[in-house]
Specification:
633 residues, alpha/beta, Rossmann fold, GMP Synthetase, Chain A, domain 3, nine-stranded mixed sheet, eight-stranded mixed sheet, 20 helices, 39% helix, 22% strand, globular
Length: 633
């Protein structure tokens, strides 16, 4: 039974757990401290949450005020966020990777008076811009030794350590207990819970206003569709909580169910942490799953001989077994015996590295290459793909556990409608809901538009931009291109990404780029060709493989020239380009390319925090080199 009622607010989720699901002595959070994993009970977490609320009320914060969180994942995020949520203060979460200019813009646009930070790096970032943020009056570091960063600085904002807030708030709890309860009961479902600023591949960040209704109803719909999670699960959290995907799919789902949240130490230690924590569910982005796939393939085949032969045989057997089951057929005794042997010889060794308890992983934040999804399916690890945007709270479709259609993002969630609209005529080809699901449905391609309880309240202080994306009938226009395939939603590309060549031919770059990314030699690819006669690309090679193949040192990648001119390396890349081009139509094939020395990055301003390419930025930075591709081809 779904634990969420339709009128439950975000702070109501946690209260429901301790009142109806778990005793408050049950473990809620798990984090790594002093070289060991430590468990935090619901009671301990609630004590900190109450202290935060009491302190903030005592200094005058009130319903509707905004407070910013610039935090790496961990228990402090929960304490501060829940402390805000139950008194009606709006959470403004900022990506830790954003440049100072965007961080400054968000603080000024939101009018946040308070910001909490939990690393020296993030504190230094805020100290550089604090005096440019007129509304900011309070900076809260969560770590010891912060004074060495603030001494000798003249700041208009005061600095208050989080330890003091927890200490003083604990002393104020009794005095403010009734005020906290009254504030919590006074929260309306239509009230804004959070402002999440879209990173966007173009333009200024926009603050997406998500209400308590948006967030809790989205979780409710997810749990109605994915019945395989419950209060006994352990989620491993590593994606940033500043992103709505992790906030919903891990944090809010666990708040609703009473499942445990374990916080990874870092992305670099994720593999180690998986083995130690032994999670049952992980939310991941496609790039991580691609890396796991690439590493498993390399480990299984690089030594050659009998080991590689067994690995390839096991994958082939897994594929046959998976396809039989997906067709609703029972694998025969010979195939079942072979699969069990493959499981023992190969698959279990891969699963052990994830902790050995995974029920499934959830992939979101971008398109998962079909071959990667199939690989995990072949070895018996279920990947549920989902789709949504910040403006849709975010999930609007997700794979059903028992019905996998690779290359799609699953079935429409309950309470939501998804339509496919023709780009030119604006005619709606189809409107699909959870109830109308038809496993044989296939439709034409068009823009994906969405309607339902998930749609944001609007963009903060931007009514015209809000009107531009939400039409008079309540449809939110995503800018994504897609269609329905076997009843499931399939994403093709972004409308803004679409390349129109000099002959008027439309090219969606993502499927073309994904074709070339099948090459182990290619790490990243950026397609070019708008208003040009043919396509070209900027290609980032797989550095590890490049080092091994050409015996290169790290210094090679730190040279000043942004592009690699070595003919042998270019030819090495071109071998795979030519081979994979055969899978594409002639107008989709790359005619020429340049090999980029360093990967596209967030720090260089080339990628958004969700690793989407900023097309206009990249084209501007490398304009001269791009023009050379069309002069020499």
């Amino acid at each position: 039974m779904n634990p969420i009622t339709k009128d439950m607010t975000v702070p109501g989720l946690l209260r429901n757990v301790v009142e109806h699901i778990h005793p408050d002595t049950q473990t809620f959070l798990i984090h790594h401290e002093d070289n060991q994993w430590k468990e935090i009970s619901y009671r301990a977490a609630l004590d900190h949450i109450q202290a935060v609320s009491a302190y903030l009320l005592s200094i005058g914060l009130k319903k509707g005020d905004r407070a910013a969180l610039l935090l790496e994942n961990g228990p402090d995020y929960v304490y501060f966020d829940q402390g805000l949520q139950q008194i009606g203060v709006v959470n403004v979460s900022i990506y830790p990777t954003l440049p100072e200019s965007d961080t400054e813009y968000i603080l000024n646009d939101s009018g946040a008076r308070t910001i909490i930070v939990n690393t020296p790096f993030l504190l230094r970032k805020i100290l550089k811009i604090a005096n440019n943020c007129e509304a900011l009056i309070r900076i809260i570091p969560t770590f010891d030794g912060y004074e060495k960063y603030t001494e000798n600085l003249t700041l208009q904002a005061g600095v208050v350590p989080f330890a003091k807030i927890l200490h003083d708030g604990a002393l104020l709890r009794t005095a403010y207990e009734k005020d906290i309860a009254s504030a919590r009961e006074g929260i309306l479902m239509s009230d804004i819970s959070t402002l999440i600023y879209t990173s966007g591949t173009t333009g200024t960040p926009k603050g997406v206003m998500l209400t308590h209704s948006n967030l809790t109803n989205n979780v409710r719909a997810c749990l109605d569709q994915i019945l395989e999670v419950d209060q006994h699960d352990t989620f491993l959290s590593f994606l940033p909580l500043s992103h709505v995907f992790e906030r919903t799919a891990t944090y809010h789902v666990c708040l609703a169910l009473g499942a445990k949240i374990a916080y990874a130490q870092s992305i670099d230690l994720l593999a180690k942490n998986m083995y130690e924590v032994k999670p049952t569910v992980i939310c991941a982005v496609p790039r991580l799953l691609e890396k796991i796939h690439d590493k498993a393939m390399k480990n299984g085949t690089q030594s050659g001989g009998a080991k590689a032969a067994i690995f390839k045989w096991a994958l082939g057997t897994g594929k046959q077994y998976r396809e039989k089951k997906e067709l609703g057929k029972k694998p025969g005794p010979i195939l079942t015996t072979q699969y069990n042997l493959a499981e023992r010889l190969v698959f279990n060794k891969i699963k052990e590295k994830t902790g050995g308890r995974l029920k499934f992983m959830i992939s979101g934040g971008g398109a998962l290459p079909q071959n990667v999804g199939e690989f995990f399916g072949n070895i018996g690890i279920k990947i549920l793909e989902g789709y949504g945007l910040t403006e849709t709270s975010p999930v609007v479709a997700v794979t059903e556990f028992h019905r996998q259609v690779y290359g799609t993002v699953g079935r429409v969630l309950p309470g939501i409608e998804i339509a496919i609209q023709d780009i030119e005529s604006l005619k709606i080809h189809t409107v699909q809901s959870h109830a109308s699901f038809d496993p044989n449905l296939e439709t034409e391609e068009g823009e994906i538009i969405i309607r339902g309880h998930c749609i944001m309240k609007g963009y903060w202080n931007k009514p015209e931009e809000t009107k531009h994306v939400i039409d008079s009938d309540g449809w939110f226009h995503t800018g994504d291109i897609g269609k329905f395939y076997k009843g499931n939603l399939k994403i093709t590309d972004r409308l803004k990404n679409m390349i129109v060549n000099a002959y008027g031919k439309n090219v969606y770059p993502t499927p073309v780029e994904n074709t070339y990314l099948k090459s182990k030699r290619i790490e990243q690819i950026f397609l070019i060709g708008d208003n040009r006669e043919y396509l070209t690309a900027l290609i980032v090679p797989n550095q590890e493989l490049l080092k091994e193949t050409f015996n290169l040192r790290e210094s090679f990648f730190n040279q000043e020239d942004p592009f690699i001119e070595d003919i042998a390396i270019i030819d090495w890349i071109e071998q795979d380009i030519k081979r994979l081009s055969n899978e594409l139509a002639k107008f989709e094939r790359i005619r020429s390319f340049k090999v980029k020395r360093k990967p596209f990055s967030i720090d260089a301003g080339e990628l958004t925090p969700t690793l989407k390419a900023k097309r206009k930025v990249i084209e501007k930075i490398y304009a001269e080199s791009i023009n050379e591709l069309y002069q020499t081809s």
